[in-house]
Predict the 3D structure of the following.
Amino acid sequence: MDTTALETATQPERLRRVVIEPLSRVEGHGKVTLLMDEDDHVQQARLHIVEFRAFEKFIQGRPYWEVPVMVQRLCGICPVSHHLAACKALDQVVGATELTPTAEKIRRLMHYGQILQSHALHFFHLSSPDLLFGFDSEVGRRNIVGVAAAYPDVAKQGVLLRKYGQEVIRHTAGKRIHGTGSVPGGVNKNLAADERAALLADIYQIVAWSRDAVRMVRQLFEQNLELYRSFATFPAHTLSLVRADGALDLYHGGLRARDADGRTIFDHVDYDHYWERISEDVKAWSYMKFPFFKELGPEQGWYRVGPLTRVVRCDFIPTPLADRERREFLAFDDGRAAASTLGFHWARMIEMLHSAEAIKDLLHDDDLLGTDLMAGGKRQARGVGVIEAPRGTLIHHYRVDENDQVVRANLIVSTTHNNQAMNLAIREVARRYLDGRKLTEGLLNHIEVAVRAFDPCLSCATHAMGKMPLSVQLLDAAGEQVDQLVRG
Amino acid sequence: MSAAPAPVLVLAVGNLSRGDDALGPLLAERLEAAGLPGVEVLTDFQLQVEHALDLVGRERVIFVDAGTGTPPPFDLAPVSPAADFLHTSHALSPAAVLAAFVKVRGEAPPPAFALCVRGDRFELGEPLSAFARANLDAAWPALLASCEAR
């Protein structure tokens, strides 16, 4: 496909500009700009995310043992993912090529708790209002209170699933936030018997609710088949971690890259030298980089990460209920659901179910109660850690000097991997739904629905009270505002 | 059987590594050090739906956060449930947490207040500004009084 169509207009000075952006500095350092001609035809559509600039400077110069705690402050949405990715990288620095069984299983439990609570938040709070009420529904209904009014059990389950995931994190990381449970070389606490009993008490209900959530997404697809199979959909290369036997593994594995037809680009690649396979392109109009597969080049080598990629591109899921749901997902509508952008939601709920099952299995494993927590070995100067975070592949790469200071850090976060894919999604929506039409709030929400499917992390780690509405500004070619819509 | 929750919950939100966004956590640290009886202090990066469950069994809840548009040095005001969610945001307002409590529990939430301390600079890696530090000191007696006014 032509991935540059609508990226850059030929005569932008003659076009009308539409900006969808948050007014507040605090949340959502992202905006969408559309350039429209006099007949309301879209000539250019771009997603700008301006947040991911200071990560590396924030980390460089710190002692390496501080890093697993410090990096949690990069993102208030998925701090555990940064915590674990940093530890995986720093395991290599301290020479821990293999963790003790207790350490690895505690980390996995923490990670599945994070996936569970993050996916629950996204589906029940951020996306279900769009999906249950329609993309054009009034703003007042598009929130979890709106969902609660219409589907009280669903809203309550969403809250309790979140709470359970947070409890898993608290018991494994030591605290609800700023956890210190994982350290370079292992973990600093096991699971106490009473903690395991407390988590076991509710896990079967959590599995059941997660299964219900998968079925709810399936029903949404069945009821809106034409919309769901085509909305914001386009072919994409993919990148994910897989286990050595091809299974879905959210904590560890080799890199698997597939093209849009599922053909292998590379497979089971050791991520220790990820830069030999992946590079990052820069575009003048965006602060965020554009990763690509080196062997395909920046124009053709962009790819998509995240739940949809992971569920579709693994060979199987190693928990039975989620694997059965995966096979049904892949077969549904002759495979078109698994190729659609809204398939992200279905895949995300399958991963939530897998995480619930994995937590259940781990809680029955006595290794969690073990006391052999740390491993070590020959000190190394650098380390790379990769994990499948809720939003997709997360890479942490550090170089540490002889004084134990981090002298170089490179992070590629999930939202950056998906930069080009999200841009293509909004262009597809702009072309199909906005082109030639007078813009309304409902139509503009289609843009946000497309971006939201990827669950980009726009709100990294900061929050302050204050209004956080989105504004849609219509500007003329001279940059003068001619109209404005505000909501929130 | 779990113990009854402390009557007063102080729920502070913010990020210690983002300049004045540290106002909430720093006030929480100071309050924890004060060790007031009957007061539990929780800190998080931002408010979320599950925080509604932390309100169960409380007599009073005080949300503490930095504010961008707050008149300096701080504002302390009652909060009522309101469905002012943004489906575009991963975070909730105090009023939205109270609304989630009502929907999940089917009952009125405990009386709640929001202590909003004015901050201006929120960039990653920045320290607390002198302006925010002064506002924090000004807000501290009000936070103490809110906790003790039972």
